[in-house]
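My current task is to audit a protein record that another person submitted. What it holds is a sequence and that sequence's fold in token form. Thanks in advance; the entry in question is below.
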Amino acid sequence: MDALCESAPLEIKSGRRMNQIILLGAVAFVLNALFNHFALEAANPNKMLKVGDHFPAYSLTAVDGAQVSDKNIVGRPAIYFFFADWCPCSHDSIKWIKRIQAENPKSGIAILGVGMLDSASNLSRFAKKHKLEFPVISENGQSLAHEAGMEITPTAVFVDDGAVIRYVHVGKIERYEQALEGLKTILRTTASSTITQTLAGAA
């Protein structure tokens, strides 16, 4: 009985220590998120591009070492998905971008994942985890994010075949219909009617 009484304070101390560790972990996560936000804000005074603006030219390096340039997709509509591996909403949203690619193989849409405020290894891990079949920009993706004025992950930018921004979705993509809304703005009239029918069926 005495042994049980003596062990009780140790169990209480152990529980308190675990709570302290969990609290410190939560505080560290919040501080890291705030640091990333303000670091991006300080490094990126540009205003975010909006519908009607031209998407900037770029020449970047993908996680697999391939060179990616806007010159390679001239005349094609494109989707730029700005993300970070540490961002849960990026992980939740990417499935809808992948579905667009899977369900529109003949649309000619170019898709590019652009990593922000993250290491090349983390971005590469993101691409492997989600089995992405489109280029993912690593270390120099921040330069494009800076020029486009991107501050929030994820952000999906839908650009038409003339490099004009037609739709921007900031934050988590909750439903496939939200991705389709962007898609139909960048496809030609004939393709857009098909997307409109798909939207009607999904409603």
Notes: The chain is about 50% helix and 15% strand.
